[in-house]
Amino acid sequence: MKVENLSFAYGRRGGNEILRGISFVLPSRGLFAVYGPSGSGKSTLLSLLSGCLKVQKGSISVGGRRLERLSRRGREDYLLRTVGLLPQGFHLLEERTVLFNASLPLRMAGLGKREAERRAAKSLEAVGLSEAINRRASLLSGGEKARLAFVRAAIKKPSLLLADEPTGNLDGASGRAIMHLLKEESASRLVILVSHDESLSREYVDGYIRLRDGRIEEAFLPSIGEEEREEKERKRGSSYLAGSFLHAIGSDRGKLFLTLLSSSLASALVVFASSFALGSERAVREESRLSLSYLSLSYSVVEKEEKAGLLTLSRARRPSLNERELLSEAEEEAVVVPDFSYYLPSSYPLTVNGFPKDETSLFPVWDFSYLEDPCWKDRVAGETPSGNPLGYCVVNRAFEEELGEPTLGKTIRVQRDIHLEKDDLTEDFTIDLSFLVAAVVDEFSFMGLPRVYYSYQALAGYLRNVEFTTLAGDPYAYVEEAEDDSPLSSYRCLVFAPAPEVALSLSSLEPLFDGFSLSSEAMAAASSLAELSSAFLLLIEPFLILVLGAALFLLFSLSYASFLSRKREFAILSSLGARQGDLLILSSLAPALASLAGSLLTIALAPFLLEGGQAYFLEKAGLAILSSTLPPIAYLLLSASFFFVPLLGSLIPLLRGSFRNLHEELSEE
User: Fold this and answer.
1) Which of 210, 389, 427, 474 gives 420 a disulfide partner, CB atoms 3.0 to 4.6 angstroms apart?
2) With the CA atoms of 466, 469, 470 and 472 taken in that order, what torsion angle do they form, in degrees rounded to the nearest 10?
């Protein structure tokens, strides 16, 4: 060993200088002591020689290896292969057995568990600890702990054995026993000890250095020549990791359970929120398609719009024949017809099998053939009326529920007295229509409006067959010829689509001229509901972010707490030469796996969770607004995020604390 102009200072700017340019040379074997008062730099020198502290100024050469030039991994290998440490506080893994502590360096160096424990048992027997082999280290006496620490330091037969106050906390007999063991070791390797007890150590040492204020005050060392020895990196062992990992799971089971629970709940929240975001708009869109009102649109021309405070008032008129032709040309499959709502209003009292009923929505459809589409399977009770007879109608489930009894086969009757005036002529006639309920449809459940659907074509034929006695023509022609200010003219025309695709094309049609207005009651309701869902998501987004952020922070904190609770263990393993990757596995893998398990559990249960959610929303809102599943990439990102967040909880403090700070914490202890 050769030390040249070695200086070291603590603090960010090096304000606390401990060592000041010391130099010395030691042979490859022998027992040498470092003396000096407290604060003279003895322990700091030992930490620098071990590689636990990085050289700041000067150089240290051990067996031909320049410590100041070593990388982090090089220092780890130097600690593992070359150095054996016997610290002042012994730094044992108190909750592990004597045998585990003693065999740990051999297992870290690549020896199998069985062979390492066999050699450790033999060494423990040599120092009188064979009977305590399966006892926890915390149950040993001071002398027994010192002997166990010696076995752990010497068992891998390092070329450099460093002992910091090995007899400081021992009685006379135990102190002499440790000094005797160190002396025996010095016959084949270099042993350096730091001691205040010169009276005891002087009997055993081959030389010494006395420090004062960071400088060599006195030295008694043999004259030697320089020795160079290259040491190649050998295989490292990781068999100790499995045992340490399982022990960590047992000791941190409370934190790991909280990690699992937090991950599961947070993952469930993400799954529900994502499912709602993906499913609500699609559910409303699909639900609106399963409505006969989806195929009926209102066509009008807006002539004037005025602002009245927060409201916008508009005046609309019926499209002219030319404007109706423009729409027919834009969508050839659409049927544009006059509105007969004056004769049969959209809301009117009726009777069911002769019993009066409150006002109900009467809604015209072009025909009922859409109900034969496979998408309506299991949603239609009864039979679809063939053709478009006026004597048949279809009611929705909301109508039947409001009535409180089955409606199939019942007769719905509508009676309305009509009075018309034109050019001092009047006409009075009665519309008396009877509809037989041919089918009950389950549609557009979130609207919940009772509806009676009848055939527009059949009503048009009925009106053509009514003859006026005083007015010329018939009711059908009278509507077509009515002036714009006539109550018969209505402010709109009706547009019927033969298929949902045509209705969708019409609703997304670009305006054909100024004032062009084409709308669908079903689509407007669907759009409003979609906007409501978006607004709901917007409202709860801060809450979701807050809850999810809190869950992720909790996962991070639990992982960080697990690291802190085992920081002393990591420092001890670091001082024995454990690599930072090994420490990362021991500190963060368990929390990361627990968090991952929580997210995977949620993913596995996602179909059942979403099915339960669907049942809840169906009961409360009458609408399945959750997506039945999420894309695989979403689940992959979910599980990955819940794996890496706890990983960072241990990785960040480990990287910040690093190799040096872990050892400094042990020294402070």
Assistant:
1) 427
2) 50
